[in-house]
Amino acid sequence: MxxxxxxxxxxxxxxxxxxAAVRAVVRAALNKDMRIFGVRxxxxxxxxxxxxxxxxxxxxxxIHRGGTILxxxxxxxxxxxxxxxxxxxTCQQMGIDGIVVIGGDGSFRGARDLSKKGIACVGIPxxxxxxxxCSDYTIGFDTAVNTAVEMVDKIRDTNQxxxxxxxxxxxxxDCGELALHTGIACGAxxxxxxxxxxDIDKDIIDRMMATQRxxxxxxxxxxxxxxxxxxxxxxxxxxxxxxxTRHTVLGHVQRGGSPSVHDRVMASRMGAYAVDxxxxxxxxxxVVSKKNEITDYDISEALEMKREFNDDLYKMAHEISV
Length: 322
Ligand code: F6P
Fold this sequence. Notes:
Blueprint lengths: L4 E6 L7 H14 L3 E5 L4 H5 L2 E3 L27 H14 L3 E6 L1 H12 L3 E6 L15 H22 L2 E6 L6 H10 L3 E3 L7 H14 L5 E6 L5 H12 L3 E5 L11 H19 L5 E6 L2 E6 H6 L6 H10 L2
Parallel strand pairs: 1-2, 1-4, 4-5, 5-10, 6-8, 6-9, 7-8
Antiparallel strand pairs: 2-3, 10-11
Helix pairs in contact: 1-9, 5-6, 7-8
The structure holds 6-O-phosphono-beta-D-fructofuranose.
């Protein structure tokens, strides 16, 4: 039997732990006597042939590094029929039998389209948003929450000194997971997420006033970016309560930094598992974590799944932040 060749790429927004996943894919592939290639800048690398062969030491000293050594991009050209055909041609020319695609939902659509054209693809969920319906966990989320919590803790110090309120916007696109977990870990007075409709007077102002009556003097309000208008929320709070209010957008700091232990371990498990699937002849699969077990689903089915928001956790967060 001829030697199998596979490639690995990172696509979409970067996430801490992507490097650990690349490392795991490379090492698992080499262990199985496969040839392994790195595709640079996501699917763009498949379009313009920006592909390098990777050796065992190419991935040394990256397990602890944020970002991605393969670079990443969002590739509009790849979404066209012409783009996909070009990518297939590149794979055929280079003898690439399969690809591990590390990224989010958008990247999995690309993986599904390539699989349909005969290039075996396996996805690994990696995004700080934890917004992929099929998997309990996406690589990068734990590190991003820890970064956000560290930042909010610092804001809390100055908040406390000045008896202020801080409205802090966290990332997450249309998903409130980052906001919910940051809010719980920081004991925020209010957490506003896109999944739950909110009334600014009832859900923020009244809560602040009630806690003020029992002696609270400084306040943290976490707003998910998907809600929009966090600056206006801060302005309204100051006008309505007379409490000096500051507005902070945490931004891309949440995307960087050394991955946490959880992200390194998840990335290693998922990376090795993805290569197993390809070695067994699998295609159009996505690696997922379910109740801390690693398993896999058909990508097309996974993309149809609807994400569920944890309403009980959200309710609990507000019950104890009084
Ligand atoms: O998907 C990850 C994420 O950081 C989102 O939380 C955010 O909405 C988006 O990417 C930001 O994208 P960009 O890096 O293109 O500004």
